[in-house]
Structure formats: structure tokens, C-alpha cells
Design brief:
This protein has 295 residues and is mostly beta strands. The chain has 2 domains: 2-62, no CATH class; 76-291, Alpha-Beta Complex (Fumarylacetoacetate hydrolase, domain 2), CATH 3.90.850. Helix content is 13%, strand content 32%. It has helices spanning 34-39, 41-52, 84-89, 171-175, 232-239, and strands at residues 2-8, 11-17, 23-26, 57-59, 76-80, 107-111, 116-117, 123-125, 133-134, 137-143, 159-166, 169-170, 191-199, 210-215, 218-224, 250-252, 274-279, 283-291. Strand 17 and strand 18 (283-291) form a beta hairpin. The chain is globular.
Length: 295
């Protein structure tokens, strides 16, 4: 099932996108939003599936989709350096913050929830705040069942579904605050998320997803999730060690090589750029970079 978020007559609603991604069944309002369905467990999802057959259908082209998730338990959870080709491409280009070698365990950080925008919304861009706006195409997942110290063998059973994300980052801010990344990852209205939430049963093998990013029609990133340094089940197992993950938590799983700051010469986003982020089977984000005062 592909669960989308939209507003109808001023009220937030959930919809189910059809297999061809051309139409949307508008789910009854009593079912709640996508956030509610994620936290409702198997019963909520079963009710949504049952409602599709009787729901009114609208053309997807006639509605504006929003971020599927809009109410977060905490900061967005993120993974750094999770494709070795990306780790290596940035060696010596991290402003003196290179680690001694390849990490033995996943690297985690967070970003503020106010970064999240919808799949067609503008990416805020303020050159007075940062001179180094970079793109990072990623697979995101949503936890559907609470758990702590989750065994790797059981980890995928805690995933409700998957989305596409672009972790737009400000590299100069990322380096400027003591080596931690929160500030350079948390600028408002900079992370597209969506276009819908694809339930885990439609993604039988999350290690076989193709991730791509293009800017103004030029391919910048292209890889499969099979190249992750640490697979998704390992990320969940490591992150949950002693730390409860709750239904509705969002985890970004890392970006492959091709980022702007690792290119020679470096290439950063500018006002008017169009960024397209795709993950096969999960959909596409299409966002324009628009100058916005953030100071």
C-alpha cells in the first residue's frame, strides 16, 4: 500500500495511491492521517486496506501531495557514511574532520523535524546563511512497532514502510560546530520527504533499491542499496541498542557517492535549481531551490 498525505477542504487526509501512481483513493476521514495509521499498527493498516474499495478516487495529477509524515516523536534519525563509495569520495575534503579509517559501526546523527517539506515543495535557500548547499539522495524508513535492543534478525519486522528523502545539507555549517553535524543538517524547510509511504510488504528486499539524484536534468547520484556499508537491518539493530525506537520514528539510511562537495570542482545548489530524487519502487521527489530569507 502507498499512503499519501493531502489536504481536502482545509482538513488533513490520507489517501492510497494506486499501483500505477496515477490515481489516489481518498480514505475516510475517520481513519485519520498517515501519522495516525502508522501508529495504529496492523489494525489501522487493515482498516485502511478495507476502505480503499469504497473510497472516492481522484487523479494524482489533480492533488498536491504533502509530506506523508508531519508529526514526529523526535528529531529525524539519520545515518552518515553508509555507502563506502561516498565515504571514500569525501576523504580529505571534510575540513580536517576525517576519521582515522572506515568506521566499524554505523555513524548516527539527527536533524530537526522542521526541515521536512513535501515531495513538490520548494527547498529553502539562503546564501547569507551558508555558501555550501548540497544534495543527498536517500532511502528513509518509518518504524511501525516499538522496540529496544532489537536483534538484527528481527529488525525488518519493525519497519512500517519506506520513503524517498533528500538530506539537503549546508557543508560549511556542518563543519563549523565542533565536528558534530546537527546544525548543518537542520535548516528549516530543506528536506523533501515522500512522495508517499510505501508499506514494507511492497518492499520485499530493501537491499535492492536504486537511488538516484539529478540536478537540472544532470545525473549526480546513482547507486543501489546493496552497496550500503551497513544494511538496513543492521542500522536498526545498532540504533536500538539500549534506545527505544517508537512507531513513527523516521530513519534516513545514508547517501551514495556523487555529492557536490566531493566533486572537483565542487558544485553546490543555487537559486532556481531543480532537484529530482528517485528510488525505484518508492517514487520521486521534484523540488526547486528557491531563495528564502532564513536569517
Amino acid at each position: 500500500m502507498k499512503l499519501a498525505a493531502l489536504t481536502v477542504d482545509g482538513r488533513p487526509r490520507a489517501g492510497a495511491v494506486d499501483e500505477d501512481a496515477k490515481a489516489l483513493a481518498l480514505l475516510p476521514e475517520w481513519l485519520g492521517t498517515v501519522d495516525v495509521l502508522v501508529r495504529g499498527g496492523p489494525e489501522g493498516l487493515a482498516a485502511a486496506r478495507a476502505a480503499v474499495a469504497h473510497a472516492p478516487v481522484v487523479a494524482l495529477a489533480d492533488v498536491r501531495l504533502e509530506s506523508p509524515l508531519q508529526h514526529f516523536n523526535r528529531d529525524i534519525l539519520c545515518t552518515g557514511w553508509n555507502y563506502w563509495d561516498h565515504f571514500e569520495e569525501s576523504r580529505g575534503k571534510r575540513g580536517g574532520q576525517d576519521p582515522a579509517g572506515r568506521p566499524d559501526r554505523p555513524t548516527f546523527f539527527t536533524k530537526g523535524p522542521d526541515t521536512v517539506i513535501g515531495p513538490a515543495d520548494d527547498i529553502a535557500y539562503d546564501p547569507e546563511l551558508s555558501a555550501q548547499w548540497d544534495y543527498e539522495a536517500e532511502i528513509a524508513l518509518v518504524i511501525g512497532r516499538d522496540g529496544r535492543s532489537i536483534p538484527e534478525s528481527e529488525a525488518l519486522g519493525h519497519v512500517f514502510g519506506y520513503l524517498v528523502a533528500n538530506d539537503v545539507s549546508q557543508r560549511d555549517l556542518q563543519r563549523a560546530h565542533g565536528g558534530q553535524w546537527l546544525k548543518g543538517k537542520s535548516i528549516d524547510a530543506t528536506m523533501p520527504l515522500g512522495p508517499w509511504l510505501t508499506t514494507a510488504d511492497e518492499v520485499p528486499d530493501p537491499s535492492a533499491l536504486r537511488v538516484r539524484c539529478e540536478v537540472n536534468g544532470e545525473p549526480r547520484q546513482d547507486a543501489t542499496s546493496a552497496r550500503m556499508a551497513f544494511p538496513i537491518a543492521r542500522l536498526i539493530a545498532e540504533l536500538s541498542l539500549g534506545m527505544t525506537l517508537r512507531a513513527g520514528d523516521v530513519l534516513l539510511t545514508g547517501t551514495p557517492s556523487g555529492i557536490g562537495s566531493a566533486r572537483d570542482p565542487q558544485v553546490f545548489l543555487r537559486d532556481g535549481d531543480v532537484v529530482v530524487t528517485r528510488v525505484d519502487g518508492l517514487g520521486e521527489l521534484r523540488n526547486r531551490v528557491v531563495r528564502t530569507s532564513l536569517m
